[in-house]
């Protein structure tokens, strides 16, 4: 097994982008539970996200959601983020909350609706010029609830045409990442339901269009690490939306439901070059913290990714390849499992301390007084969250 010392250069490079919406109030369709100190503005969300980076060194950028994080001056918002030690990252579009999008957006049969959705993405790209963002993330709730409701084939052509119009607006250094999801809120068919559809659509656009893989967006039992291996092999894995699920798109803390799956995903990321210095793959959380404290929830999340990444980096690839070559099934599996069963937390704590970071980020935040401070200070105002 590789030594911990040998993997620290890769760990040093790890960066996990935080979603602004993780810090706002969010919830399921049943209820949104508010918590004291919840941000009321994009600036307060960014200040909270900066606490995660301060205590872990793992989260240097914050993704925005438009219009939830709409401000008059995005350059000023970027300066605010920089003053807090972080930068702005992915711009996430939103065509899933307006009345006009009841029957879809970029895939809708109504050309006027498609034009509105395309214009929204043009606005997002304009914002990207001001925030310095590389990625435009497109997730569509588009789909139908009943067989026959709409022409599912024509919707693919509508989507393709809409994406061409958006792609043409991208700057030279900008990318479009198209996220898929197998169901919800549409229940009969979703217009971008799987990695294959996203791959087909982005491949038709060009090299600046790639797939976004949300780990909560697959049917139970899906071998997600196979999709990771395939998209890396095809050069079309643009980004992850990390979270974990027990049943659907639960948006729970990544690794909480199945740390072994996260380990296997990171093992394929590493095998496929996704952690190399020149890797185009972006790693982001897409989570909501409905019953747990939000900032600690995000700290726990990035630590979970770091821990499973470290374990996956411990895999002795030479020993694994030899065992595979020799058809030593149990030997090969043992190489894999030896790495997975290695508790890397003590080594990570020491490593953090050696870099001037808290050995225990959760404890450091809990005793920092920050949570108590915002709970006392942020009284009144609209507590940001879904649709805020
Ligand atoms: C929706 O299920 C997708 O995961 C989106 O990436 C994300 O949750 C949304 O854009 C933010 O609410
Ligand atoms: Zn997502
Ligand atoms: Zn999702």
Automatic annotation (TrEMBL):
Gene Ontology biological process terms in this record: L-lyxose metabolic process; rhamnose catabolic process
InterPro entries: L-rhamnose_isomerase, Rhamnose_iso-rel, Rhamnose_isomerase, Xyl_isomerase-like_sf
A Gene Ontology molecular function term of the record: L-rhamnose isomerase activity
Coiled coil: none
Protein origin, superkingdom: Bacteria
Chain ranges passing through the membrane: none
UniProt cross-references to Pfam families, sorted A to Z: RhaA
Alphabetical keyword list: Cytoplasm, Isomerase, Manganese, Metal-binding, Rhamnose metabolism
Protein name as annotated: L-rhamnose isomerase
